[in-house]
Task: structure prediction
Amino acid sequence: MASYLVALDQGTTSSRAIVFTEKGEIVASHAVEFPQHYPKPGWVEHDPEDILDSQITALKEAVRLSGVDVGDIAAVGITNQRETTFLWDRNTGKCVGNAIVWQCRRTARIVEQLTENGYGDMIRRKTGLVPDAYFSGTKLKWLLDYYNLHEKAENGELCFGTVDSFLCWHLLTGRPHVTDATNAGRTMLFNLEQQDWDGDLLKMLGIPRACLPRIVDSAGTIGMLDPGILGRPIPVTGMAGDQHASLFGQACLKEGDVKNTYGTGCFMLMNTGSRPVRSENGLLTTMAWRIGGKPTFALEGSVFMGGATIQWLRDELKLIDRASESEGLALSIPGTGGVYLVPAFTGLGAPWWDMYSRGTLIGMTRGTGRAHIVRAALEAIAYQSADLMEAMIRDCGKAPERLQVDGGASANAFLMQFQADICGIPVVRPQIQETTALGAALLAGLGCGLYANPEEAASAWRKDLEFIPKMDEATRRMNMAGWHKAVSRSRDWAEH
Ligand code: ADP
Result:
C-alpha cells in the first residue's frame, strides 16, 4: 500500500519539498531559492513564475533523491508562507502583477484609513486579527484599485488567493480555486465564528465575493496533483499555513499545548481548543486547523527580533563569527552581571506594541565584556518569548505543561535551558526539526486515510531533548523584573 507522504513547503525565501515515511521520518528533501523583489522602499514582491517553477523543481528533485516509486506516495500536503497575495485571470491563469509579500508595507495607509474610519473594532471582533498591512485583505484591495479591476473581479473573471490557493490552482487537475481555513484566517476577510468570508469586511474593502476561493478543511481531499508533474496523479489531502502546520507537526493537539519556532523572528502558537480566545494582551486569535468541518483555534504572538538578534551580533557588532559560537560564550560566564539587551530595533510587538521603543543595552559596568553582551542577547530571545507565554496564560487562564520548540536557534542548548528556567516549564525539542513540513505531511496522511485520527498522525512526533527548569523561583522573578525594568527604559524612545 502507498505509504509515503510528500510535503510542499513554500516559504518566503525558498520552496522546499520533503518526502516522509508514514512514521514521519525524512527520506529526502530539496530546496530551491528564488529572488526577492524590492521595487520601492518597504515594498516586497515575488514573481509568481518563480514560486511555481521553484516549487515544481523542489518536488521533482526531492522525489528523485528519495528513490521512492511515485506509485508508493499516498498523498501530498501543502504548507506555505502566509498572507502573500496573488490575483490571476481565471481563464489564462496569468497573474496581475507580482505577488505582494506579507512583509510589504505598501497598504499601511489603507489600514490607517480603516482605523480612522472606526473599523478597528469590527476587524478585531470578526477576524481575531489586529488591523495591519501584513494581512491579505488590503493587499487585494490595492491590486484591484491599482489595476482598475473591480468590474472584472465582480464578473468572476479573476481569482484571488494566498500561496496555497495559487499552488492548488496551478498544480492540481481541474484547477480548483480553494484555500484552507488557516490561510483564509489571515486575510482579514474571514469571520472566525462563522468560518466563512464576511460580507461586512468585503464591503469595507470593496472586494467582490466572486474572486474569492472556496474554503476547505486543513485535512481532506482537495484534488489530484496533475499527472504531468510526477507521471501519476497523486491525491492532495492536506493544507495549512506554515505556523499552523508547525503546531500540528509539533503534536500540539490538546488545549493549552504550545510551540515556539525560533527563526529570524519567533512565532509562538497556543492551541485553545474549540473556542476562539479573545486576547486582552495584544495577541492574535487565529485558526489552529479545521478538520472534519470542526475548527480548532489558537492564540498567536511573535517576537520581531529572535535569531535576527544573533545575526546582529555577528554582522553589525562582529562579536561572533558564527551564530553557534554564541552558546559557548554565554556558558563561559555564570550570568550577564545585570546586563540586559532589549532588541527593540523596530519597536516591540506583543504584549507591548510600542513602535517607538528602540534597542537598549543597559546595566553595564566597567567589567562588562563581549560574553556578557552575547549572553544578554540570547537571554533577550527567551525573555521576549516568556512575555508572549505570560500573555497567553493571562488570556486563557491556563498554564501549559511544557513548551515545544523548533527553528534554527532552538539548536542553542544555552538558550533552550534559559527558556525553560525563565518560563518555569520543561522545553522539549523534537527529533524532526522540520515541523512545518512534517505537519503538512501528517495533515495529508490524515486527509487520505493513512491515519485514522489526528492522535494517530501525531504519534509520528518524537522527543529528542528535554530541558528541565533548574532556576529557583526567587531568581526567576528577579531576572524577569530586571528584564521588565530594561523594557520600560527602552520604551517611547524614537520621536513620534
Ligand atoms: P528562518 O526560517 O527565519 O530563516 P531558521 O529557522 O533557519 O530561520 O533559523 C535561523 C536563525 O537562527 C538565524 O537568525 C540565526 O541567527 C539563528 N541561529 C541559528 N543557529 C543558532 C545558534 N546555534 N544559536 C543562536 N541562534 C542561532
Observations:
- DSSP finds 17 helices and 23 strands in the chain.
- Residues 274 and 294 are 8 Å apart (CA to CA).
